[in-house]
Design brief:
By secondary structure, this protein is of the alpha/beta class. 46% of the residues lie in helices and 22% in strands. A four-stranded parallel β-sheet has the order 2-1-3-4, sandwiched between helices. The protein has a two-stranded antiparallel sheet with strand order 5-6. The radius of gyration is 16 Å and the shape is globular.
């Protein structure tokens, strides 16, 4: 049986520069996402000088900042962190939908990995669970995704 060539990224940071773009809205959650992501990057080999953090007002503003940062060609990946909690109006759908669409467009237009660490939840309790308690920390997951994608893309070049 022939074994096909397999390309996959490992989880080791090797001279990789990451920028974390964080929405300030719901900062009691996004700060935990940021802490988890930064801790993960450090544990996987990133040096302090290879990490930058940019704060924006909220999840709706993440795509524009991510685009500007990706276009700068200073980074190997963008990690977007935010939190949108459903309320009693359609505002949630607009903000969450545009955030997802915008970040996806940034990744496809620039060819730079944009890791999605934006919580879109129904309740504050769900956000807390995903920011470091019962359901883990989605900032950690986004950081791991960014590391792996950087390493996959290096192999594809």
């Amino acid at each position: 049986m022939t074994k096909a060539k397999t390309i996959e990224g490992d989880l080791v940071c090797r001279n990789s520069k990451f920028v974390l773009v964080v929405g300030r809205f719901n900062s009691f959650i996004t700060q935990s996402l940021l802490d988890g992501a930064v801790d993960t990057l450090r544990r996987h080999g990133s040096a302090e000088a290879e990490l930058e953090v940019v704060w924006v007002p909220g999840a709706f503003e993440l795509p524009l900042a991510a685009k500007r940062l990706a276009e700068s060609k200073q980074y190997d990946a963008v990690i977007a962190l935010g939190c949108v909690i459903r309320g009693g109006t359609p505002h949630f759908e607009y903000v969450a939908g545009e955030c997802v669409k915008g970040l996806s467009q940034v990744m496809m237009q620039t060819g730079l990995p944009v890791a999605f660490g934006v919580l879109t939840v129904d309740t504050i309790d769900q956000a807390v669970e995903r920011a470091g308690t019962k359901a883990g920390n989605k900032g950690v997951d986004a950081a791991l995704s960014a590391i792996e994608m950087v390493n996959v893309l290096r192999q594809l070049n």
